[in-house]
Sequence to fold (115 residues):
Amino acid sequence: MKEAYALKELMETDERVIKLKKDEEEMENNEEVMRLSYVFSCAQNEYNDILKHFKADSEEAKKYQKKLYEAKTNLDSHPLVRKYLQSYQEVRLIYNKIQKEIFKPFNSHECNEKR
Fold:
């Protein structure tokens, strides 16, 4: 158990995790990012609503799908979002390695082994 707390402490003090938290806070507090996020959320809702009435390959749905795509592209291309996503990718690689190296033995299920 001590080792788990040591790992947690190590991760919390890792410069990449600290940078990710800083980038996330900066991104979440930026008015332009908030606006782009709102536009994206609205576009998602509109697209989901249109799918309740039209097939996905209909002209109506395609129009809203394009609007959704553009909203997502605008959000993802904002410099603060790009910076956050880059930091997130670096930290995700760390967590993937931890998952693979430490927790892999716990991923097998007894019911799968009996087959």
Notes: Residues 77 and 115 are 47 Å apart (CA to CA). DSSP finds six helices and no strands in the chain.
